[in-house]
Amino acid sequence: GENVEQHPSTLSVQEGDSAVIKCTYSDSASNYFPWYKQELGKRPQLIIDIRSNVGEKKDQRIAVTLNKTAKHFSLHITETQPEDSAVYFCAASIGGGADGLTFGKGTHLIIQP
Amino acid sequence: DVKVTQSSRYLVKRTGEKVFLECVQDMDHENMFWYRQDPGLGLRLIYFSYDVKMKEKGDIPEGYSVSREKKERFSLILESASTNQTSMYLCASSLRLAAEQYFGPGTRLTVT
Description:
heterodimer; A: 113 residues; mainly beta; six-stranded mixed beta sheet; 0% helix; B: 112 residues; seven-stranded mixed beta sheet; four-stranded antiparallel beta sheet; 11 strands; globular
């Protein structure tokens, strides 16, 4: 089955700086790559997703890039703010097939004031 | 607004008990999922269902079963609870398989 590796497990950045979280996946058939944010004590929520026919997608301060050849995708957060502090999970899915999401182990992002 | 609810926020059960975790969604979503979340391990898929009475094994189905008799309700069953099933259990639903999943608030299950 699919295997998703996520790095780093913890990331501490100064407020206002950028943060980058990287994921790799194993199944070349995967074609849907979402990112979820989970604040302390709350449920995960989708922040951005990308499909394999697109190389990059942006939504205000967050962007995701996908390199299908290398089988890796990354989350970029610019101008980080205190409310960005959370655990972020990447995931991969074959999409149209009968499978669910395979998640990475998560990155705890800490924004230092 | 999509609403996914779970029957309990906290549950304490004894080893060997049969445990039922219930999940209900109100958006007429086709797909429903059960995950467990453990520190340092992320979310791991236990089972999912893409239609009423249909179910598919996820990555860690051992020791669990599921039931989906109605579209809006998806139940996770621990036939004989064990201490290694102590975890946070999250239910989710989505309109399509490769689409946004909406999560419930989670059930923290402790098996003693």
